[in-house]
Amino acid sequence: MDDSEEASGWAARSSASGAPGAAYPASSSSLGLVRHRRRTLVREEEEVEAAQEQISRILSSADKGVDVSLREWLDRPGRAVDLLECLHIFRQIAEAVGSAHGQGVVVANVRPSCFVMSHLNSVSFIESASCSTSGSVSASSSSDDDDGDAAAGSCPGPPERNGSFHGPSSSTHLKDRREADGADEKKTFPLKRILLMEWSWYTSPEEADDVGPGTFASDVYRLGVLLFELFCTFDSLEEKLTTMADLRHRVLPPQLLLKWPKEASFCLWLLHPQPDTRPKMSEVLRSEFLNRPTSNLEERVAVIKLTEEIEDEELLLEFLLHLNQRKKEVADRLHDSISFITADVQEVQDQRSILVQNSYPELDRGGRSSTSMLDHPVADVDSSRFASRKRFRSELKSGVSDEELSHLMTEAPRSATEQQIQLSVESKSSRLMKNFKKLEAAYFSTRRRGSRSTRKPESEHLQGTSSGTGSAVRTERSSVDDVVLKEGRGGGRRNEWINPFLEGLCKYLSFSRLKVKADLKQGDLLNSMNLVCSMGFDRDNEFFATAGVNKKIKVFECDMILNEDRGIHYPVVEMSNRSKLSYICWNGYIKSQIASSDFEGVVQVWDVTRSQSLAEMREHEKRVWSVDFSLADPTRLASGGDDGTVKLWSINKAGSVGTIRTKANVCSIQFQPESAHSLAVGSADHKVYCFDLRNLRMPCCTLAGHTKTVSYVKYLDSSHVVSASTDNSLKLWNLPATTSGVLEAPLQTFAGHTNNKNFVGLSVSDGYIATGSETNEVFIYHKAFPMPVLSYKFSTTDPISGQENDDASQFVSCVCWRGQSSTLLAANSSGNIKFLEMV
User: Fold this and answer.
1) Torsion, Cα of 240, 243, 248, 249 (10° steps)
2) Which of 212-216, 360-364, 535-539, 568-572 has the highest mean pLDDT?
3) CA 13, CA 141: separation in Å to the nearest integer?
4) How far apart (Å, rounded) are the C-alpha atoms in residues 193 and 197?
5) Is a pLDDT exceeding 90 seen at residue 625?
């Protein structure tokens, strides 16, 4: 190329890299071509593999009715040449190249593998995974490199001269592609080989001679090769390879010259070996060849555009129909929800009317009440209401008429009571609205469970048990609820879901805060070994014991701590152990017995009255984390530890009476309150195992829902278990009546506290669940709702200065309910022990 050509915009050089050697003969450049092929052979293989991978992805999409690669479309077996179709495709590509040239950009990648087609023959340029850094090169800005080389294209192209390669290559992909080629060769031309040869076919003579980078004229040459492939089809790969090699010499097959003379002539013009003799893109676009009067072509283009518009409308219509259907489903569900909420509102209003009528009896003519408050107990009736009734009855002696008496008896108390109820509701409404979303979710969950199941007998309802005794205690309040809440309209039963939800809501709103009733003041607060690991109340809740890393079991009298203000509280009994203590448990029948476990794997039974150990069990090989007495059989004891075993003991026998072997550390165990044969085991493998001790080989049920170590298990009642884990959650499980496999769906998941690494305690009582937190807080949940009911944060007080400070390292290490009361004992990692009461 001479200097004048290089100076012109038409012949300006781009920063394209050299292409693989071409088949076009040029003796003066043979040695350079061979050297070039050697330099790029390996990298060219990688580029082709990446290009093939890109096209394979396109082909897989094409199977679903999406775009298809133009390369695959051209090599489709049995493809028939349609004049209008081919001209339409060529015109689109020519216009795209012309637009790039108008902006001074050499496209360089005018090859079928760089284009995709829609089913309406709409052609689009693609960015291949094997491209270097950019899709095209400016004709005016790339001659600064010494070799004149830079990134040449974004479609499959040769690697850069400096050896850098930005596309993916993998031996695994290479193997997959070879296997794919072998499978597809029977159907069509092998894609890998075609892509490899495509480089030489679409390389212009000046690029093959390595005399300079690609120019605008090189793009025109590639358009000529593309036009040839559009109008020439082949029956075999050998025929295609031979014909394409002849094309480098501008030798066209006879059938093309006979059938498509105009197209062949135009193709030869574009393929002229001299770049300056080829037409410019402006000439190509204005040529008679592309602008000949073809009414059928215009009609086809119009039909294609119309079809595309119809297709777009169809897509929009399909989207709107799907959207309409989904919204209708949402509306139907919303309508159903509103319907049963409306029914529930009506039912609750009717029940409220019955309660109001029973709460305010009318007087008969003899001046006596036809119904009595005591005959019709009502929930939420407190002493103030009875007092207001008595005060009003004393006013009946003031000499008013019988009608006035009747009016006053029915209206005056009702007004005062309604005012009191309104004040109570207002005081609780803020907590109600604060957790409205979670309460809503709990309502719908309870409603769905109620609609799927039949009403269970009263004995099957959740009856909370304490961690101390495990017995169910019915309060006066619960007996009142039983009388009133079971009756619905006209004395009938309520909807079966209402009672459990209302019970949970009442329990949730019954208390507003945790109040400190007493602080346990010990004389060794400065001792760093004060971490309390376990606490428990005796059979009658008169005494409680603490144990921890100070190797001591201390027994305190509850009333002395609660009722007497002392500077320092001393234990009534103190027993020393050789190792750090991990857990203690009182015997639920023999009041003076306590079982303990320690860090050396020793299980002991202590006699508190004599302050001495009665028995030592040394069969565990590692630290024991948990020990528990059976409530149903007070002579039976179980322990579990880091050796992955659960040992069963009898206080009347020297050695263990049974062993359960697990695959992971055992962190917690507990007997079922009503059976000496059922045991729950919390494991470090994130699961809870429930065993029937008459068959120790395998668990009768596995509870799998936690994502970290299960640190505690507690029976809420005979058929419900609460588990705690270091995944920041508690879970409530409904145990199956018969042997079952793995349960993965808990009834409830409680979240709000923080527990990532420490044992923070777990205790249950009357449906309330207490746990500690690594934020130095105590959290109270109720079984009906997933969010905390109450919380209390331990204040860290400096024992010398008395000032409060926030120590992020401290956490609540242990909690324990005092039987079925609302009083809770809690301790943190610094040894601070408090009596907390729900008020």
Assistant:
1) 180
2) 535-539
3) 9
4) 6
5) yes
For residues 371-390, one letter each, b for 16 or more C-beta atoms within 10 angstroms of the residue's C-beta and e for the rest, the string is eebeebbbeebeeebeeebe
Strands 729-734 and 666-671, sheet pairing: unpaired
487-489-493 Cα angle (round to 5): 40
Per-residue three-class SS string for 283-319: HHHHCHHHHCCCHHHHHHHHHHHHHHHHHHHHHHHHH
Instruction: Show the tokens assigned to 406.
Output: 């009747």
Q: Which residue has the higher pLDDT, 77 or 630?
A: 630
Average pLDDT score, the chain:
76
Q: From CA 275, how far away is CA 297, in angstroms rounded?
A: 31
Top-confidence residue, 118 or 5: 118
- Measured at the alpha carbon of residue 14, what is the angle toward residues 9 and 17, in degrees to the nearest 5? 155
pLDDT of residue 679: 96
Tally the C-alpha atoms within 13 A of residue 646's C-alpha that lie toward its C-beta.
30
Q: What is the pLDDT of residue 248?
A: 86
33-36 long-range contacts, CB within 8 A, separation 24+ = 33/208, 33/209, 33/210, 36/210
**Token pair of 78 as six digits:** 């049995």
Q: Is 801 helix (H, G, I), strand (E, B) or coil?
A: coil
In three-state secondary structure terms, 320 is helix
Structural contact between residues 77 and 267, judged by C-beta atoms closer than 8 angstroms: no
